[in-house]
Structures are given as C-alpha cells and as structure tokens.
Amino acid sequence: MKLVVPYNVARHHIRDGDMLAYRPKWWHIVGQIVSTVGRSSVSHTAIACWDGHALDAVSMKIAGGVRDRLSNEVRKYPGRIDVYRPSATITRHVVMSDGVKTKRLACDPKRMVQLARSMVGRRYGWFNIVCIAIRFLPVFRLFLRPPQGDVSIAGRDPFCSEMYAWLTKKAYTDPVPGYANRDVTPGELTRNPLYSYLFTLDRDNSLVEDLAQAIERN
What we know:
Blueprint: E1 4-6, H1 7-10, E2 19-22, H2 29-37, E3 44-51, E4 54-61, E5 64-69, H3 70-76, E6 81-86, E7 89-96, E8 99-106, H4 109-117, H5 126-135, H6 160-171, H7 186-190, E9 195-202, H8 206-217
Parallel strand pairs: 1-9
Antiparallel strand pairs: 2-3, 2-6, 3-4, 4-5, 6-9, 7-8
Helix pairs in contact: 4-6
C-alpha cells in the first residue's frame, strides 16, 4: 500500500542518498517496457541530493547525467515517484585468512551524493541497455548468462539503476553481491531489502502543510 504525501510536506523528510523510483505513465512506451522487463512497476531511479535549501534529483536520463529540481519532477510525475532509503548499517560476512569474520558497514550518504554529482554531464549507458535487452529475448536468454563481476564505470557510461547500484557499492556495500551492477534494473533495487520504502510524492498541498505546522505548534 502506497503512502502518498504532498511534496511540500515530504521534502523535509527526504535525506541525501535516498533513492527515487519513478513509475511510468501508461502512455510512456519505453518506461512500460523497462518496468515489464524488470518485473516491477518502476522504470527509472534517481538519487536525492540536497544543495543548500534546494532538493535535487540526480540521475542518468536519455540526455545523460542530469540534475533536476525534485519539485519539478513531482509536477511532471505526481503520485509516481516513490522514495526509498538505504538501511543505516548492515552486517556482512567477510572471508579472511584466519576464517570468516563479521563486519558491520555503515552507509555514507554524503559520499553517495558527491559521487552522484560527478556523474552529471556523462552520457547515457545505451550499450548496457542493449546488452540487457538482448539477454531478455526469448532465445538468447537460454544461452547468454548475466555477467557476474562489476566493472568500473570510470571509463564507461551507466544507465539509471546501474548508477545508483554503483553509488551504493562505493559508499556502502554491494547491493547485489555476485551479480553485476550493469545488469541491475530499477525493479530489482526497489525489491532489495537493503532499501526501505518511505512514501510516494504528490503535488503540493498548502492545507496539509498548514495543518502540519499547526500540529507542531501545539
């Protein structure tokens, strides 16, 4: 069940590093194909980045790496942007020379945002999109196995969910161990228990904001 919250109320609860998952409109053919291939309702992901008092959504779009005002994105896609948050810490088992050790890792949202901003201006990862599409074709999927290892995106161009998976790995932990980030779809990220659903963004509602402020004063 979705918790739909007006943007002017929800923005105060969004933090650096939160994942923004977009659900396509019914007439958006490419978005519908992406969501179907990913076996989910989402077709695009972005990362929330605070810039002073302004809240941005940094992502890889067809035009490349962009930084959009989240308020403008909500106006374009009201009720279609879900907000997810990476867990603050996670425990991983690491194989050491003297045996298996338990290691507690902490998420670094500031690092995620720093890396995300460096992606603005980069080209979109069309090559990886084509590779994923081929592997999902009825015949090819019987013979082509998905890649297992990750490749640095320093010299390559990622797509939206690949970028967010890479940011998580660099500043926290690998969200899909044993599975290549360049094959991760938006739906696979939203289904990952590493990220928790918070709410869905809708158009501003001045009455709701006034009520919330009145409750806080009392």
